[in-house]
Design brief:
The structure holds two protein chains of two kinds. By secondary structure, chain A is α+β, with helices and mostly antiparallel strands. Chain A is built from 17 helices and 18 strands. Chain A has a seven-stranded antiparallel beta sheet, with helices on both faces. Chain A is globular. By secondary structure, chain B is an alpha+beta fold. Classes of the chains: A alpha+beta, B alpha+beta. Chains A and B meet through helix 7, helix 8, helix 10 and helix 16 of A and strand 9, helix 7, strand 11, helix 10 and helix 15 of B.
Chain lengths: 482, 452
């Protein structure tokens, strides 16, 4: 592209302070939360309104310049990785709450708004926004829409898609469209539904209408301390089989506990093989009635100790450990590589056994800290890239875990997305016809393929491999190993 | 175009002669006055695929058909060449209770699915109208829902994986059989509510919920519909978690009270609040709160239903219909705060046209069903009246940030009013999925929004 001419035109749209062209400043945007991938955009623009976004996109469309939208850049699959030579549109400046409508239980927000700000703003009136990914103090609602972000609360309250009812979107040709809104059952195809989770490949979100909910009357959080992973795993599906719908059931293994205790001292027993955190909420009498059956299930599965948080401080402390777990990994390992595949709940004991054996066989530790209540694993393979071949080994282990999950009837990602990272695994789950159907939807939104190209779909490599081997080949390329 | 004999022969080759009918045998499958040349009932996904490949090659227009409970929905089809009946695609594909998921073939009746799941104290959180007769595929294709969506959500919240046969016969899947999944695009959402215009749903996987151990319903009544607005607002803003929050106008309340033999004031607006939980104490405490809130907002007395009466009440409410003479059913979606006004406006407009009106609202979700009848008027006069009601209520619903759809009406009315009412400016983009997925317009042409 003719950088100078394009930059001049874009400056005309977003102003002098809305554009970044200096290579040093551009470096901030060269990666998202998955830092093994890096790519330098040619220009970054930081629009403040829908009209500015549309203006910028029209330029990209006219000039056939590939472009990518970015929220807070906390994504873990390279979904917001810029395109070399392309334009990156940073959405952080569009971060206002436009409307809160408590009686209709809706809010309208701009995409750059940080997830937790919304709940903070609603809290004085006793309302909240449910989806709470671990990165909620940094990640943006627009990014959550792109990734269909989850979090621990899935078993009872679902994920982002269940809470997003309407969108304003700038299509890749610069057209501004509205899907859905504050009311249910909008006419025609569920364009909001198909858009959520499209990983920034359909359009640039400029407004989001979300469901807000009244805070429950009561919340109880329990910790079960277990001597074996198997007992903890068995407890999870046993709780479900009892007809209990917990808000969350989270599991942490000993490696995670070690890291967390060094990091934030949440009070988990250091010698526990695994702990489960279970949370229930709802009307007071119902919550009371749910605690005993969970304790019974724990006991049937040989729990060593059960702690029920007595007050809000104790509850928050239990959660603090869980929420800080990824950040605390630095306490026990210089680096980690995380996957987020999903298994049916009853397969939890077998996959945990598989991961344990894999770790032994490959000689790298794995810390498991994950959403057990919905079967969404987060095995963190601990490695040190200073040691020759360890990163490669960690990635290979991640690939084996994904494959095992899919063999057990699961899914290759529960909330982090495919992005660039996992695109070559797609054929493990979907055949050519399935993928072709998805490509048709991409064409509906982006017939020219300008928006976030190269993500989600397996790279076209004539004669090349797909799946884990192809994945390694791609990662090798990224790391300059071939 | 194939002659009838040749067509029956070709279809028989695909699904067996016992599963193809033509001529007078096809007459129960008329859609808005248009009779198909043949009705074909494939017995497997492969056979559905073969029939679609055949229909596409021949350029024949296909109307998918579950159990026919919602065939009145949609615009008048452009052409009906083949009706493809899914009722032979029945039964469980996978069910592991502790996974809290289950996969069924699309021709299964919801009732049959619930019976299987009920054996493990689980269920699919859907209770649409005609729940005893409707198939899963039909419910999903029409995005049909009922009172319990307040607690459990609608099809878009409950379906986690789907299998579809496209217009050309290709079989594809979307989603995954686990409760959390973001692998690729969320194709489930595309097919749900698409009225079979992008593909035929042949299999679906649901996330399940436990059956509540106890469920009871509080019935309250209000002299004026405006009072119900306050009652609903206060219940929604309370710690109570209702499974359903239904508002009925006096015409509907009277009919339901008679059918279910429940005590309900017959001249008032009725509010029914269902509470389900794991323990009776938890239900009691919430019912007390609801009772107090209703009392404070104007309800003179309340009744609590449980057991058989409770079930009978909800069956009558869910399947509410006025069957005297000419009927039409409209569904509006509006802001929750506009429900009471939408009821009042509906009653005014219907009265002006000399039509009787029963209104059943999912008051906590903003969904309103208007049931119109005209007992003593001519069909012509009835259609004029309904057309006027549709136009007025559609304008109201749009003003309340929603929409109004004609769910059921005589075919003649459909040439008078647009049954969907999708605003013109939304149409060009809405046509694009159809153009990608079914460029030949084989599936249900003319029936979906904007004549898609």
């Amino acid at each position: 592209m003719d950088k100078e001419r394009i930059a001049r035109e874009l400056t005309g749209i977003v102003g002098n302070d809305g554009i970044v062209v200096d290579p040093g400043e551009l470096r901030v945007y060269e990666a998202d939360g998955l830092t093994v991938f890096k790519a330098m955009p040619e220009i970054v623009v930081l629009p403040r309104s829908t009209e500015q976004v549309a203006g910028v996109v029209k330029v990209c469309h006219r000039e056939k310049i590939p472009f990518v939208a970015r929220g807070a850049g906390t994504g873990l699959s390279g979904g917001a990785l810029p395109i070399e030579g392309g334009i990156l549109i940073g959405m952080n400046r569009m971060n206002r709450i436009l409307e809160t409508d408590y009686e209709n239980q809706r809010a309208v927000v701009e995409p750059g708004m940080v997830n937790v700000w919304l709940t903070n703003a609603l809290s004085p009136r006793g309302y909240y926004y449910s989806p709470d990914p671990a990165s909620q103090t940094a990640c943006s609602i627009g990014g959550n829409v792109g990734e269909n972000s989850g979090g621990p609360r899935t078993p009872k309250y679902g994920v982002t898609t269940n809470h997003v009812l309407g969108l304003e979107v700038v299509l890749p040709n610069g057209e501004i469209v509205k899907f859905g809104g504050k009311t249910l059952d909008p006419l025609g195809y569920d364009l909001t539904g198909i858009y959520v989770g499209s990983e920034g490949t359909f359009g640039i979100t400029t407004k989001v209408t979300v469901r807000i909910m009244r805070k429950p009357e009561a919340v109880k959080t329990l910790m079960g301390v277990f001597e074996s992973i198997e007992d903890a795993s068995n407890s999870v599906s046993a709780i479900m089989a009892r007809g209990i719908v917990p808000v969350a059931i989270e599991m942490m293994d000993n490696n995670s506990i070690q890291a967390v205790e060094k990091g934030v001292a949440a009070g988990y027993p250091l010698d526990a093989v695994a702990v489960l955190l279970a949370e229930v909420d709802g009307p007071k009498d119902e919550v009371e009635a749910l605690v005993d059956p969970i304790i019974e299930v724990f006991k049937e599965n040989h729990v060593r100790e059960v702690r029920v948080a007595r007050d809000e401080n104790e509850r928050l402390l239990l959660w603090k450990g869980r929420k800080a777990a990824f950040a605390a990994m630095g306490q026990i390992s210089p680096e980690y590589y995380v996957q987020d595949s999903v298994i049916p709940l009853t397969k939890l004991p077998s996959i945990m056994k598989f991961i344990g054996e894999l770790s032994e066989r490959c000689g790298l530790r794995v810390a498991n800290v994950f959403h057990a209540g919905d079967g969404n694993l987060h095995p963190l393979v601990l490695y040190n890239s200073a040691n020759e071949g360890e990163l490669h080994k960690a990635e290979a282990m991640g690939a084996e875990i994904i494959k095992a999950c899919i063999d057990m009837g699961g899914s290759l990602t529960g909330e982090h997305g495919i992005g660039l990272e996992k695109r070559d695994f797609m054929p493990l789950m979907y055949n050519e016809d399935d993928l072709a159907a998805m490509q048709k939807v991409k064409k509906v939104f982006d017939p020219d393929g300008l928006l976030n190209p190269g993500k989600i779909f397996p790279a076209a490599k004539p004669g090349g491999q797909v799946g884990p081997a192809g994945q390694r080949e791609m990662l090798d390329k990224v790391h300059g190993r071939v | 175009m194939l002659a009838e004999g040749a067509l029956v022969q070709r279809l028989s080759d695909l699904v067996g002669p016992a599963h193809v009918v033509a001529g007078s045998g096809a007459s129960p499958y008329v859609v808005d006055g248009k009779a198909p040349q043949a009705v074909v009932s494939p017995g497997s996904v492969e056979e559905v695929s073969a029939v679609m490949a055949f229909a596409s090659a021949e350029g024949m227009k296909v109307v998918p058909w579950g159990n026919g409970t919602k065939m009145a929905l949609g615009g008048i089809p452009e052409r009906v060449d083949l009706v493809l009946v899914l009722s032979r695609l029945k039964g469980v594909v996978d069910y592991e209770p502790a996974d809290v998921t289950a996969t069924f073939r699309a021709g299964s009746l919801l009732k049959e699915a619930q019976a299987v799941l009920g054996g493990h104290r689980q269920f699919i959180g859907l209770d649409p109208p005609h729940a005893d007769l409707a198939t899963l595929g039909g419910i999903l294709a029409t995005n049909s829902s009922g009172p319990r969506r307040l607690r459990y959500g609608a099809s878009r919240d409950l379906v986690i994986a789907i299998r579809v046969v496209d217009a050309a016969g290709k079989v594809t899947k979307g989603g995954a059989k686990v409760v959390k999944n973001v692998t690729g695009y969320d194709m489930n959402k595309l097919y749900i509510g698409s009225l079979g215009t992008l593909g035929i749903i042949v299999e679906a996987t649901f996330r399940l919920h436990p059956l509540p151990a106890v469920e009871q319903t509080l019935l309250a009544s209000f002299v004026s519909v405006n009072e119900t607005r306050e009652a609903v607002a206060r219940i929604l803003d309370s710690p109570v978690v209702p499974s359903a929050l239904e508002l009925l106008n006096p015409v509907a309340a009277r009919r339901v009270a008679e059918q279910a033999a429940v005590p309900w004031s017959k001249e008032s607006y009725g509010l029914a609040v269902a509470i389900g939980s794991v323990r009776p104490e938890a239900v009691d405490a919430q019912l007390q709160t609801v009772k107090r809130l209703c009392h404070e907002t104007g309800s003179p007395e309340e009744h609590v239903l449980d057991g058989r009466l409770h079930d009978a009440f909800w069956r009558a409410t869910r399947d509410f219909a006025l069957d005297d003479g000419l009927t039409a059913v409209l569904k509006a979606s509006v802001l929750v705060t506009k429900v009471a006004e939408a009821v009042r406006v509906g009653e005014e407009v219907a009265a002006k046209q000399g039509l009787a009106l029963g209104v059943v609202c999912e008051a906590g979700s903003g969904i309103i069903r208007y049931h119109l009848t005209g007992a003593a008027i001519s069909p012509e006069r009835f259609q004029q009246g309904v057309a006027e009601v549709v136009n007025r209520l559609r304008a109201f619903a749009q003003g309340a940030e929603g929409n109004l759809v004609v769910l059921k009406a005589p075919t003649e009315l459909k040439s008078r009013v647009d049954v969907w009412g999708l605003p013109e400016k939304a149409l060009p983009f809405m046509r694009r999925p159809k153009a990608e997925f079914d460029p030949q317009r084989i599936l249900n042409p003319g029936r979906f929004v904007g004549g898609i």
